[in-house]
What we know:
Oligomer: single chain
Number of domains: 2
Radius of gyration: 23 Å
Distance between the termini: 56 Å
Bound molecules: ligand LLP
Amino acid sequence: MDAFTYRGESGARELGADGLALRAVADSVGTPFYCYSSSALEARYGAFAAALSPARARICFAVKANDNLAVIRTLARLGAGADVVSGGEMLAALKAGVAPANIVFSGIGKTAAEMAAALDARIGQFNVESEPELERLAEVAAARNQRASIALRINPDIDAGTHEKIATGRKRDKFGVPYDEASALYARAAAHASLQIVGIAMHIGSQLTRLDPFEAAFERAAKLVETLRREGRAITRLDLGGGLGIPYHNELPPSLEAYGALITRIEKRLGIEITVEPGRWLVGPAGVLIARVIYVKHNGEKTFVIVDAAMNDLIRPTLYGAHHRILPLREAAADAPLETVDVVGPVCESGDVLAFGRPLPKLEAGDLIALMDAGAYGAVMSSAYNGRPPAPEVMLKDGRHAVVRPRLTIDALLARDVLPAWLG
Ligand code: LLP
């Protein structure tokens, strides 16, 4: 299901998608820029929904993976709900057209103001992560004469076997309530007329490349549902979070079919409404970051390819040591010699490396490259570090392109700051 492929005359094949060569988009938009393929978003959502259709699962796109309104709306039109973790993400989901009833509010630090806004918007579910949050939500809802639908997020103490920074289901992680305390907390929630318990939730981590941690965590969740039901609680929903990995390099994540079958088994066993919160799987491979080579620099044994995208645009390699494949926009000949290089940005930190020790066909100043699988946790984690406006975002559809988040001008960047009176 590769969205971005080489096409054209042999010897001059160019990377493209949705009937467009990315070079043409680069000429029009300038580099660096993120580029999303509508057909890829549609195909991925369709495949995901098909794999989970026997489970009749509700798919709530994890907006944290990509909060561009055009991306959210593309998915919402296909039927996606949204998993949000802040008032800001909630507003983005609403603005993009997600039905409030299909919005799930996750996160460990919801403020009273965010709770009030979410209640006013009539969102479908709060995933509550602690006792103090439960009490706060009960108060805020009572003050507005409303009833909040809640699921308790459980920490199942399962190691997702993923990168340390994105594993969320171990006892030592800050997420969820301890498994053994869930029952007592449900009793507490039941005492509040302003809360309606609808289910339990969990999310054990992101970029999972094995099925067994999912299996172990879902089994724990299912057991808890059974226990709570024995205790007389009407548990009608089970939110299994996101986390299904994608192949960035040589990983072999579980197939969508195996993941769907696992969830279907849980659904049939419990007779329960399933929600899932995929982010990366839906949008990661549907986006690329396009950059242009500024210089090629030889320092003794090392060759640095200096490009115009940097860690402020794509921080995953710096932050997690993540691997993003790099393809030149003009396809290299099959027998082109490879050179091992570091692909780096202009930011003044040695950590500003987009690819370390990467064998690539020879690149020269002016060449265009694509950093692949950058649709998830790419643009959304960008910053203006080093006075660099983050890369703009472009969406492709049926031979057309649209700039869906323009490049900020330096003037706009500077206009964010206000001088105090004493410096005026
Ligand atoms: N639900 C919850 C409660 C989450 O915390 C997350 C991700 C998801 C769903 C979506 O997970 P996904 O399907 O995308 O794996 N910045 C990191 C990833 C952070 C993930 C945080 N939570 C990265 O670039 O790899």
